[in-house]
Amino acid sequence: MLRNALGKAFRFLGYTVQYGCIAHCAFEYLGGIVVCSGPSMEPTIQNSDIVFSENLSRHFYCIRKGDIVIVKSPNDPKSNICKRVIGLEGDKVCTSNPSDFLKSHSYVPKGHVWLEGDNLRNSTDSRYYGPVPYGLIRGRIWLKIWPLNDFGFLRASPNGHRFLDD
């Protein structure tokens, strides 16, 4: 009887470890559901919107300008942030705020991206903390799931004029 109970317990433990590994790989490499908070990506993503983030793009270096990404915060590694990619390594970006009279520009260093929120007046982004290492990217937001009346692919940046092609 004890042998039977131990056998069932070990089988249960084995299945738990197996399914745990499968779940970890799915969330790490395929993607997952993310609840966004804060005003920095308005009007594209509102506070409490639910989105799907896919993680394959970051592994295959397929992140492009205009993509919205989930990134480990450069200021607080325990939290994630949601921002739009404005520049990739080697790109010339506008580093000043929209309200600044004189515009300043810089180049994104190798292995980094330049991130900005769509709500430029209420976003802490690369204009504040500088270029972000590519390795901090966790995934690319691909689809808005909730609210249902806004279900679908994400729209283009309202700040498309900030993308420089120099």
Automatic annotation (TrEMBL):
<dbReference type="InterPro" id="IPR019533">
    <property type="entry name" value="Peptidase_S26"/>
</dbReference>
<dbReference type="InterPro" id="IPR000223">
    <property type="entry name" value="Pept_S26A_signal_pept_1"/>
</dbReference>
<keyword id="KW-0378">Hydrolase</keyword>
<keyword id="KW-0999">Mitochondrion inner membrane</keyword>
<feature type="active site">
    <location>
        <position position="83"/>
    </location>
</feature>
<protein>
    <recommendedName>
        <fullName>Mitochondrial inner membrane protease subunit</fullName>
        <ecNumber>3.4.21.-</ecNumber>
    </recommendedName>
</protein>
<dbReference type="GO" id="GO:0006465">
    <property type="term" value="P:signal peptide processing"/>
</dbReference>
<dbReference type="GO" id="GO:0042720">
    <property type="term" value="C:mitochondrial inner membrane peptidase complex"/>
</dbReference>
<feature type="active site">
    <location>
        <position position="40"/>
    </location>
</feature>
<dbReference type="InterPro" id="IPR036286">
    <property type="entry name" value="LexA/Signal_pep-like_sf"/>
</dbReference>
<dbReference type="GO" id="GO:0004252">
    <property type="term" value="F:serine-type endopeptidase activity"/>
</dbReference>
<dbReference type="Pfam" id="PF10502">
    <property type="entry name" value="Peptidase_S26"/>
</dbReference>
<feature type="domain" description="Peptidase S26">
    <location>
        <begin position="16"/>
        <end position="97"/>
    </location>
</feature>
<dbReference type="GO" id="GO:0006627">
    <property type="term" value="P:protein processing involved in protein targeting to mitochondrion"/>
</dbReference>
<dbReference type="InterPro" id="IPR052064">
    <property type="entry name" value="Mito_IMP1_subunit"/>
</dbReference>
<feature type="domain" description="Peptidase S26">
    <location>
        <begin position="103"/>
        <end position="146"/>
    </location>
</feature>
<keyword id="KW-0472">Membrane</keyword>
<keyword id="KW-0645">Protease</keyword>
<comment type="subunit">
    <text>Heterodimer of 2 subunits, IMMPL1 and IMMPL2.</text>
</comment>
<comment type="similarity">
    <text>Belongs to the peptidase S26 family. IMP1 subfamily.</text>
</comment>
<keyword id="KW-0496">Mitochondrion</keyword>
